[in-house]
UniProtKB/TrEMBL annotation:
Ranges of residues in domain L,D-TPase catalytic: 70-203
Family per similarity comment: Belongs to the YkuD family.
Gene Ontology annotations for the cellular component aspect, listed alphabetically: extracellular region
Keywords from the UniProt entry: Cell shape, Cell wall biogenesis/degradation, Glycosyltransferase, Hydrolase, Peptidoglycan synthesis, Signal, Transferase
GO biological process: cell wall organization; peptidoglycan-protein cross-linking; regulation of cell shape
Biological classification of the source: Bacteria, Pseudomonadati, Pseudomonadota, Alphaproteobacteria, Hyphomicrobiales
Protein name, as recorded: ErfK/YbiS/YcfS/YnhG
GO molecular function annotation: glycosyltransferase activity; peptidoglycan L,D-transpeptidase activity
Signal peptide interval: 1-28
Amino acid sequence: MALNGTKLGLLALAGLLLSGCMQTTYQAAPEANLKPNDKAQLAKARYAKVSVPEPFRRAIVDYHRKEAPGTIVVDSDNHFLYYVLDNGKALRYGVTVGEEALAFSGIARVGNMAEWPKWTPTADIHKRIEGLPSSVPGGIDNPLGARALYLYQGNKDTLFRIHGTNQPEYIGASISSGCIRMTNEDVIDLYNRVKMGTIVVVLDPKQGDSPMNSKMALQGGSGTATQ
């Protein structure tokens, strides 16, 4: 059946409106989050200041799961961390996660928080990587980056962390020793939102159910979001 010009125009308009609704708006972490020491440390960064692929940049998105506002949810399958907001929204950040055999999953809580933390490699890490020092002082060259959230179950430290990184080029990959890495700017933003005792849900492998998975996103797929 042939369509007249009016109907064609309405269909085109509907298509534009739909595409507008499905457009994701990405935003940088606010500069106001940075303390003087943060600015001084970041200015000394010797790592490549690469641009994180667009799908893994900070965005406010529609959120369909039922966790309470203030909860952190990590979808390791798709390399996303969500900080749940009110009214069906969440802040979504891109992350680096552990290789499958090393990754943590389950429910934990934030049992400790630190700014520019020192790094003490675990015995397992020493076994896998030779020549590491017993500890590395906090600072821009430290693998934990600008902030660290220490994940506990009960009163026991799981030894898994959500922390910054001096390797931002790996955001969106599965290469860490099990911890969840964010860009330093993003982890500062998240750190400013959470408190001791915040619940952290790390979804089991193959259970990621993000509205948009990372493979789709990198191929140019769209998810819903608002600024």
